[in-house]
Amino acid sequence: MARQRFTAEQQAAIKREQEVESHQRTGAAADLTLGKILSTLGASIREYRTTSLVTPVLVVGEVVIECIIPFITASLIDSMQAGAGLDAIGRTSVVLVGLAILSLACGAAAGVTCSIAATGFTKNLRHDMFASIQRFSFSNIDRFSTSSLVTRLTTDANNVQLAYMNIIRTAIRSPMMLVFAIVMAYVTGGPMATVYVAVSIVLGFLLFLIAAKVMPMFKRVFRKYDRLNDSVEENVSGIRVVKGFVREEHEKEKFNAASGALYHDFVHIERILANNMPLMNLAVDVVYTFVIYFGSKAIVESAGAAMQVGQLSALITYSFSMLISLMMFSMIFVMVTMSEESARRICEVLLEQPDLASPEDALTEVPDGSIDFDHVSFEYSADADRMALTDIDLHVRSGEVIGVIGGTGSSKSTLVQLICRLYDATEGTVRVGGHDVREYDLDTLRDKVAVVLQRNVLFTGTIKENLRWGDPDATDEELVEACKLAQADEFIQLMPDKYDTHITQGGTNVSGGQKQRLCIARALLKKPKVLILDDSTSAVDTKTDKLIRKGFRDYIPETTKVIIAQRTSSVEDADRIVVMDDGRISAIGTHEELLRTSDIYRETYTSQNKQSHDLKMGQVATEEVHDHE
């Protein structure tokens, strides 16, 4: 039963991968030619260009010397057969030893320079990919999964490194040895060397057929690597939920399905690539049989006139060198074939152009914290089913406190993401400080519009190091002041190392509420013109939430505060409250006004404050009667 269930999961995973494969990405990276790939990757060689060029030179020297040695050896054998003395043999032997040492030195030096060039190139390549990712806007990141980017920075980069190492050394050595061996075979054995050329052509054609067969399979394999990493990442990040719902067996089956799909393709690829070695062995057998049979026959029938023993020995050595080169070339061929898809995936990251960029002559100063939405509509992609925001018309004065409330999926977070230009409006204009956000330098705008998310991230390091993300030059006193405003100083002082306490990866050694308060303090250190709290006090109690808001009002009155919340208590003292519903503004007003005029706000407030609702509504009704009188 378990085996049948696994097979069904595996088949479903294979089907999903085939569907993914049929969906081709668009953009600059969707139509990469080999020349474009090489030029894109070549830009990452940089300071390792010299070692990359020296390596082939050393390899050529090594090959030339290795091809000369059998020729001299053949002459030595023939001279010995003709009765040469020990002096002549000794001189030739010294030359052979010297050439062998020189060949060894060239090979060793090529190995060192090759390693430096390949590892340095890969270091630059990873740096360039990571730098490219840092420039991505949210819409760019949406086109790649996290696990896919990790695979490209690790597995794909390693594949390209191995390919580059082989290309500048072994891929130069193998064809050079092949060509020189054939030339020297013609010099030594004459027409008999034609068999070398014939075998090389047939073997090359067969290798080409194998490459054409496996290349599409490698593309599918790397997509399945992404799928496998997705499964691991999702499981590890959500391990508490997995264990809480006792879903370990389900997760193992899902992983086995992804792993099984990968296994299925790799087995198929290896079955095809396994033909390389039998082809090589067949070529070796054909050449050896031909050379030994016809060479020996020529020596015997002509009594050494047509060919001598030394020449036959040289021919056998050259045939061995040629076939070893072909076998090495076959292995390189497999590696390069596999790495071509890795190179293509890397180039997709390097060539991806950020959808958002700073304009020429961009503004580098935000005058104030005023915010204006002029009939703004927004959709996440051109093929989206509907607008995420529709006809948003909202005007916020600098220093004003604005609350934003609404149900799940009402596009509250989407609204504020347009303020700091994480996305661009599809229609209409968003202005900050009186200027269109598209006129600002991106770093300037985002430095003055601080956003604190509900699930913000703390990084590995001390509390001080995390806080100084907001301001690298902040003094210890400024850190303490920001933490007091965010109500974080109290729990920090209770920690053994206080502000030098180490935060583990992801902030797992602090609670959700403590993490949120540290992230608020970090944002305050930016001294922003606009501070956006995107449900970032959801994990703190109402008393602490109230103290944080009071601190904002007292200590940063000129900063515009936009507070997204699920609790009405978090926004009821705001200057105005915006009620969102299905991507539209349903109502705007103060807490008291919305209780009277907005059904959505009143229902939300009622559900959260049932005990005090009747009393509160009674007070509102009394005020209305007095106003009427």
UniProtKB/TrEMBL annotation:
From which domain of life does this come?
Answer: Bacteria
Q: Which GO terms describe its molecular function?
A: ATP binding
Compartments it resides in: Cell membrane
Instruction: Give the residue spans that cross the bilayer.
Output: 53-77, 97-121, 171-189, 195-215, 279-296, 316-336
Kindly state which keywords UniProt assigns to this record, in alphabetical order: ATP-binding, Membrane, Nucleotide-binding, Transmembrane, Transmembrane helix
Q: Which PROSITE patterns match?
A: ABC_TM1F (PS50929), ABC_TRANSPORTER_1 (PS00211), ABC_TRANSPORTER_2 (PS50893)
Where the record annotates domain ABC transmembrane type-1, the positions are: 57-338
Stated membrane topology is: Multi-pass membrane protein
Q: Name one Pfam family in it.
A: ABC_tran
Q: What is this protein called?
A: ABC transporter ATP-binding protein
